[in-house]
């Protein structure tokens, strides 16, 4: 089982906010520009002095979470954070605007008075969702996006979509008209496709054709796990840039009349940056590292060595050419030449196409450890420390804030948060479990020591 499980902590609650010193407290409230400062701490007061290890700190704009599961009932109260896109895969799922409005109220009721938290609600797309529902969703002012789960792809996805083009196309067209983003769990569920290939096949069969058919649709590929996904995102970006360049050149008149496939972005979880599939089997079966999409090969995630930025830049350049040539072989060759750390390289490169989405998915410990355990990793309390670790190891701490706090709101056309948080270079131990009223939840990196400690910016 997991490494050293020694301490237990009460699960961080919203009421702990905004002055809480819990590592989870970084996630709350909203609001504009920023400053990343990396500096020697001035030891402003006694508390700071007590933090002997504190020698560096980062002040960044308060992050958001663009992919979060807060559940309902007791777990909802236990895990609620900040401004976040709230996933709709409850039991039963949030398939209508009316239910989304209700669920939002439940979330707001779970907040202590005075807490400013903005839940951005989503609709769960089914084969039977109607274009009228999308209009209602837009009119409600509450529903922010629509989530596509291929039926059977993950937790509570049995009511998801069975045939995107056959059953949902009119709805997707309406989403374009309503400027409603589509959030995608990008895995096919075809039993003949190997679990580890499901993301790649989804891109080939669904996502690439969808971008071609509806290039105006804003799409976020959630929790990407493979180099294939990075290539896809870069290809869309490359094609958009190239078309823009061609159209602004003397050959074409008004490039605004053309539609660019530049509306595709991705969220990335801490686990898909830091862990590979070995983490599922190290020293025995590790249910708390099981999530969907499942962890992938080392070549897709982070390695011990820092990602090679030169390789990434080359890959990006070739991708742009590739998109023009539409030649699959070329990209496959490139994957052979530049293997490894695809996701970490992309995320830490400074590209605006990637942003923070933890997919933090709490399940009670007993539901994770039973004979058929649930998929989902509870990362909310540790996520920011882990993202900081990835950027630090890549020598790219100066790009952390864009990933956590700018790229998401910029892509969605929302204001950036005003408030700041502090990340101190100060070792802290992740509790073995977080308790809530009916049980306990094991967090990612349980029992281990992390180096970046987030908290609200309360002084100076
Ligand atoms: O997409 C998802 C859903 C999530 C959950 O538990 O809701 N758990 C996962 O591992 N992946």
From TrEMBL:
It comes from the Eukaryota. SUPFAM superfamilies: Metallo-dependent hydrolases (SSF51556). One of its GO terms (biological process) is 'de novo' pyrimidine nucleobase biosynthetic process. InterPro entries: DHOdimr, Dihydroorotase_CS, Metal_Hydrolase. GO terms for cellular component: chloroplast. One of its GO terms (molecular function) is dihydroorotase activity. PANTHER family: DIHYDROOROTASE. This is Dihydroorotase. It comes from Digitaria exilis. The lineage of its organism: Eukaryota, Viridiplantae, Streptophyta, Embryophyta, Tracheophyta.
């Amino acid at each position: 089982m997991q490494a050293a499980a020694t301490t237990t902590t009460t699960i961080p609650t919203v009421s702990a906010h905004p002055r809480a010193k819990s590592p989870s407290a970084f996630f709350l409230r909203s609001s504009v520009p920023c400053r990343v400062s990396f500096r020697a701490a001035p030891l402003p007061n006694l508390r700071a002095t007590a933090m002997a290890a504190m020698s560096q700190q980062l002040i960044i704009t308060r992050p958001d979470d663009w992919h979060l599961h807060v559940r309902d009932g007791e777990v909802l109260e236990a895990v609620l954070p900040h401004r976040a896109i709230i996933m709709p895969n409850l039991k039963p799922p949030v398939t209508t605007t009316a239910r989304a409005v209700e669920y939002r109220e439940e979330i707001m009721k779970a907040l202590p008075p005075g807490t400013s938290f903005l839940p951005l609600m989503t609709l769960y797309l089914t084969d039977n969702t109607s274009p009228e529902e999308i209009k209602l969703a837009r009119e409600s002012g509450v529903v922010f996006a629509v989530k596509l789960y291929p039926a059977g792809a993950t937790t509570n996805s049995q009511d998801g979509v069975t045939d995107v083009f056959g059953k949902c196309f009119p709805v997707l067209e309406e989403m374009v008209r309503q400027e409603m983003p589509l959030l995608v769990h990008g895995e096919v569920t075809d039993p003949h496709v190997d679990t580890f290939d499901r993301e790649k096949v989804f891109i080939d069969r669904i996502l690439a054709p969808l971008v071609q058919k509806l290039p105006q649709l804003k799409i976020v590929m959630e929790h990407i796990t493979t180099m294939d996904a990075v290539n896809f995102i870069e290809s869309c970006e490359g094609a958009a840039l190239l078309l823009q360049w061609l159209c602004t050149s003397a050959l074409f008149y008004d490039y605004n009349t053309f539609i660019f496939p530049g509306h595709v972005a991705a969220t990335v979880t801490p686990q898909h940056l830091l862990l590979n599939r070995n983490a599922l089997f190290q020293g025995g079966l590790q249910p708390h590292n099981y999530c969907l999409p499942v962890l992938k090969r080392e070549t897709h995630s982070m390695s011990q060595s820092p990602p090679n930025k030169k390789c990434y830049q080359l890959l990006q350049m070739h991708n742009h050419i590739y998109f023009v040539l539409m030649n699959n072989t070329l990209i496959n060759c490139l994957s052979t030449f530049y293997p490894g750390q695809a996701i970490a390289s992309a995320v830490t490169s400074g590209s605006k196409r990637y942003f923070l989405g933890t997919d933090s998915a709490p399940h009670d410990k007993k539901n994770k450890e039973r004979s058929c355990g649930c998929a989902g990793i509870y990362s909310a309390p540790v996520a920011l420390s882990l993202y900081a670790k990835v950027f630090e190891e890549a020598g790219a701490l100066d790009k952390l804030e864009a990933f956590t706090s700018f790229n998401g709101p910029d892509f969605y056309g929302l204001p950036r948060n005003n408030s700041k948080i502090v990340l101190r270079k100060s070792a802290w131990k992740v509790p073995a479990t977080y308790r809530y009223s009916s049980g306990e939840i094991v967090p990612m990196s349980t029992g281990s020591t992390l180096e970046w400690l987030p908290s609200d910016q309360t002084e100076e």
